[in-house]
Write a structure and sequence with these properties.
The protein has 238 residues and is mainly α. The protein has a domain at 78-219. Helices cover 64% and strands 4% of the residues. The chain has ten helices and two strands. It has helices spanning 2-13, 32-35, 39-54, 59-70, 77-83, 87-99, 102-129, 146-162, 164-183, 189-212, and strands at 219-223, 230-234.
Length: 238
């Protein structure tokens, strides 16, 4: 896995050729973890993940064995497995749309973008790394943890949109989901750290692009032509 991990980091590093807060006209949200101030989260998390994986002390293995022996979450870990399938992200997205108003539409688009890019890079990482699950099942998609990446993308959006009080609750929930994946023996510690890094990096990267650096929101809801309903629309300047 170490060679594949190195290749993945090298590919991502090629996107960081622009200076901070200068993401370019195209794919600005895609490389936002590397061209905004979210780069500090991304590279700190990436270095920490690599250090734990490559550690001579087998920190991931020790964390797995200790967690499986103690099982501190008991049967509650199954809750983390269920809600970690992106349901939190989807519920927030739909709830913001139903609530209506320009501010809530922006919140919905923010959640959709942060979650979408997080999911895409998570799946890419799984495809490149091909790490076997710790439970020795015939599944080679352990790295990074998708449950964790989506949960931390959700928590970051909640923090940016609603402040640190709600954000703390969101991050505690995300940490619970990530830890539950270790207890269920579906992920190693480095899988979970990589997922958290992706989720937070895209959550803050997309936020910086929109809120601080002026990237326009494209998503809107407009009446249908016969005025009998509503339809989704994307708007932008070319």
């Amino acid at each position: 896995m170490s060679k594949a991990l190195f290749i993945l980091i090298l590919l991502l590093s090629t996107l960081s050729h622009t200076r901070a807060n200068e993401c370019g006209k195209w794919f600005d949200n895609l490389n936002s973890p590397l061209c905004t101030d979210a780069r500090y989260i991304f590279w700190t998390g990436t270095i920490l993940t690599a250090a734990i994986y490559l550690s001579d002390d087998d920190l991931s293995g020790k964390a797995r064995r200790a967690t499986l022996r103690k099982k501190p979450l008991d049967r509650w870990s199954k809750v983390g497995e269920v809600i970690g399938w992106g349901y939190l992200n989807g519920t927030y997205f739909l709830g913001s749309l139903i609530a209506g108003g320009a501010s809530n539409r922006k919140n919905a688009e923010y959640m959709a973008e942060a979650s979408g890019y997080t999911l895409a890079l998570t799946l890419l990482g799984k495809e490149i790394i091909q790490e076997q699950r710790p439970d020795q099942s015939e599944e080679f998609d352990s790295f990074p943890s998708g449950h964790t990446s989506m949960a931390f993308a959700f928590a970051t959006v909640i923090t940016a949109n609603h402040g640190w009080a709600w954000g703390l609750l969101g991050h505690l929930t995300a940490a619970f989901i990530g830890y539950s994946r270790i207890q269920d023996d579906r992920h190693y510690l480095h899988d979970v750290l990589a997922g958290a890094t992706l989720g937070m990096s895209y959550g803050w990267g997309v936020y910086y692009n929109h809120a601080q650096y002026g990237k326009p929101y494209w998503f809107s809801i407009v009446p249908t032509e016969d005025l009998q309903g509503l339809q989704f629309a994307l708007t932008g300047k070319f």
